[in-house]
Backbone:
């Protein structure tokens, strides 16, 4: 069985690409393929031009792939520390109060490729981030149907993605109950005004705003209310980092870091002398952005930039700064700060799995 | 189950390689891998994930050895005598001199 499976897997992996050499996934051909299997696709920074990242350029991060499931076939269990275990279908969720919010998702390993020495994992540059309008129901409303017990202090999400062997760990992540019940935490059914695409977790996924992207488990099939943090590989080993106050201990990642990227001008751009606008996006997980500083001389001097345009509690914010560009080579930098007292650093201590990369983004340009 | 069928999987892999290896390499055409001794062992990794997942990593001896041990624990069909060959191959081409 496995023998045949192995050969079929080889042929499947190759056949699909032989027919479609240019695009691994139809409609996602502008993305950088970090891995075809499982599918991991990175957005080019230059494509992050809109406040809402369109589906066709939104990054994809999978630990394992999942087979598509028809919305009519989909159901989800709620079990564990609850008095009323439930199996819910899509129409059960659609009876609950729906809301829409803009949330920025960022992979915990975004920027991993910049760590020295090389850290373990998909070698993302800056483009494992995107901002979308998510429509769905509050997780708190869904949990209430199952009547969680007071002993329930964590909520785990399990999706339809499965590891390729029985020995490999299932991808299950948990969040503390305070975050599960927080009114922004949701089960999303739509993305940017359309039913949630399969690659982004459709028919239904968790959206845990402000937390690292892995908390927002896709293709939900089971929610487990637990007394303790889920005891599995993706909580206790992966998605962990050394504690700042004691690097012998590790913790499971929760909030995203405060971070910003420069979208314009792009790396290596050749600009005419004169006034130009430097701009990009900033976000800060559980914090709220309080400032953005911009440097055009490689960090020797900084001037405040301006936040502009629409934003939501857990979305990124557009920032911009005017610059009177003089001829020569210049290094642009942006540095965001937030309400938790965090500010983007100039370096990041190496961690084996390459997380928490929010080092100040620098872009080199030439002005003629 | 996987563990008990491992010899069968290895057999199949060998047989499947004749059929599938050229195609598998073609699938990795954007990420060609050097054909020095041990290169064919990398094809055992692609049972579970694409070759790109492996060859974008850079580790030192301990890092690669730990990674292979973890993959073997998860069911990768790499017996001890092949692990060493694969380790030498990976360190030859995908080593980070500063890595552990």
Residues:
């Amino acid at each position: 069985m496995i023998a045949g499976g192995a050969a079929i897997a080889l042929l499947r992996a190759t056949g699909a690409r032989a027919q479609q050499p240019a695009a691994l996934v139809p409609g996602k051909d502008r993305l950088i393929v970090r891995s075809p299997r499982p599918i991991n696709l990175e957005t080019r920074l230059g494509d992050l031009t809109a406040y809402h990242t369109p589906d066709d350029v939104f990054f994809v991060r999978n630990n394992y792939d999942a087979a598509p499931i028809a919305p009519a076939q989909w159901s989800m269990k709620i079990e564990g520390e609850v008095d009323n275990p439930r199996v819910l279908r899509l129409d059960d969720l659609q009876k609950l109060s729906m809301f829409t919010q803009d949330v920025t998702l960022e992979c915990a390993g975004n920027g991993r490729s910049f760590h020295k020495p090389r850290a373990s994992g998909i070698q993302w540059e800056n483009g494992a981030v995107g901002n979308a309008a998510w429509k769905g129901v509050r997780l708190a409303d869904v949990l209430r149907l199952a009547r969680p017990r007071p002993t329930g202090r964590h909520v785990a999400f399990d999706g339809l993605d499965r590891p390729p062997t029985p020995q490999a760990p299932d991808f299950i992540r948990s969040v503390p109950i305070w975050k599960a019940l927080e009114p922004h935490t949701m089960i999303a059914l739509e993305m940017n005004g359309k039913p949630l695409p399969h690659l982004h977790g459709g028919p239904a996924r968790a959206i845990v705003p402000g937390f690292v992207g892995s908390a927002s488990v896709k293709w939900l099939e089971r929610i487990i209310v637990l007394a303790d943090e889920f005891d599995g590989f993706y909580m206790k080993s992966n998605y962990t980092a050394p504690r700042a106050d004691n690097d012998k201990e590790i913790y499971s990642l929760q909030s995203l870091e405060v971070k910003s990227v420069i979208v314009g001008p792009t790396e290596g751009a050749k600009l005419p002398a004169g006034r130009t606008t430097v701009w990009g996006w900033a976000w800060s997980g559980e914090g709220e952005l309080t400032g953005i500083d911009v440097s055009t001389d490689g960090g020797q001097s900084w001037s405040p930039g301006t936040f502009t345009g629409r934003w939501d509690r857990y979305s990124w914010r557009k920032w911009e700064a005017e610059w009177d560009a003089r001829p020569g080579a210049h290094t642009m930098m942006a540095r965001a700060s937030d309400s938790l007292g965090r500010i983007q650093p100039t370096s990041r201590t190496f961690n084996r799995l390459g997380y928490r990369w929010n080092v100040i983004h620098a872009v080199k340009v030439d002005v003629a | 189950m996987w563990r008990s069928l491992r010899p069968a999987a290895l057999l199949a892999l060998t047989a499947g390689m004749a059929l599938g290896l050229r195609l598998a390499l073609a699938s990795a055409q954007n990420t060609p891998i050097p054909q020095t001794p041990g290169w064919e062992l990398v094809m055992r990794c692609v049972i579970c994930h694409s070759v790109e997942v492996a060859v974008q990593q850079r580790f030192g001896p301990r890092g690669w050895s730990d990674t292979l041990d973890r993959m073997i624990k998860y069911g990768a069909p790499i017996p001890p005598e092949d692990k060493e060959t694969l380790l030498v191959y990976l360190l030859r081409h995908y080593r980070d001199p500063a890595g552990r």
